[in-house]
Amino acid sequence: QLQLKESGPRLVKPSETLSLTCTVSGDFISAGTYYWAWIRQTPEKGLEWIATIYYSGSTYYNPSLKSRVAISVDTSKNQFSLKVTSVTAADTAIYYCARQGGYRSVLPAPEYFDTWGQGTLVTVSS
Amino acid sequence: DIQMTQSPSTLSASVGDTVTITCRASQDISTWLAWYQQKPGKAPKLLIYKASTLKSGVPSRFSGSGSGTGFTLTISSLQSDDFATYYCQQYKSYSGSFGQGTKLEIK
């Protein structure tokens, strides 16, 4: 059964870097059948897609966050990670990792989020 | 940027009712649309993708329709388990932008 689980510090100081890791079980990132993504949720902005990665390292970023965000993958550990730099209180959110599925012209494509982690609340505060 | 707008923001209904939630895209997204259900304290769950394709295991009382800029999610014969918040998401542009959500409440 596919499971995704977020891990990382729950409290981050302003101006520092938020780092999260998603551990995948029940599927192999290296299989290349799906993409892998980070999404966050706040009461003010709702659900916001942050970034997506493929096992090969190809990445997609939300333009509004691109300058501060980096997504990476470690296929040997079946994990992918997120870093958000120079955080402010506006980055306080529930962060979800998710598997992103879909096909375009018979090739896997980053479309809908078919399985989500449970989410982790990250608070930015001094 | 493709903006997604849902209506209504809140919907009150009773068990057994049939309800419809609308999602509008700021530009043509063909049928590149998904619907999710989220309950308090839980992650969203995928219900429908490609505007009308039900994810395996999702009850058939859920249905989706539409193309271009206008889409609907219909829930027939509401059950108590269906009271939740519903979100649409476009994926034409790979930006994955979501609607603001529709909270389905018990009347």
Could you characterize the architecture of this molecule?
The complex is a heterodimer of chains A (126) and B (107). Chain A has strands spanning 3-7, 11-12, 18-25, 35-42, 46-53, 59-61, 69-74, 79-84, 93-104, 107-116, 120-124. Chain A has 126 residues and is mainly beta. The termini of chain A are far apart. Chain B is 0% helix and 48% strand. The mean pLDDT of chain B is 96.
**Number of DSSP-assigned strands of chain B:** 10
Q: State the helical fraction of chain A.
A: under 10%
Q: Round the Cα radius of gyration of chain A to an integer and report it.
A: 14 Å
N-to-C terminal Cα separation of chain B, in Å?
Answer: 36 Å
Radius of gyration of chain B: 13 Å
SSE order of chain A = EEEEEEEEEEE
Provide a brief overview of the structure.
The complex is a heterodimer of chains A (126) and B (107). Chain A has strands spanning 3-7, 11-12, 18-25, 35-42, 46-53, 59-61, 69-74, 79-84, 93-104, 107-116, 120-124. With 126 residues, chain A is an all-beta fold.
Secondary structure topology:
The complex is a heterodimer of chains A (126) and B (107).
Chain A: E1 3-7, E2 11-12, E3 18-25, E4 35-42, E5 46-53, E6 59-61, E7 69-74, E8 79-84, E9 93-104, E10 107-116, E11 120-124
Parallel strand pairs in A: 2-11
Antiparallel strand pairs in A: 1-3, 3-8, 4-5, 4-9, 5-6, 7-8, 9-10, 9-11
Chain B: E1 4-7, E2 10-13, E3 19-25, E4 33-38, E5 45-49, E6 53-54, E7 62-67, E8 70-75, E9 85-90, E10 102-106
Parallel strand pairs in B: 2-10
Antiparallel strand pairs in B: 1-3, 3-8, 4-5, 4-9, 5-6, 7-8, 9-10
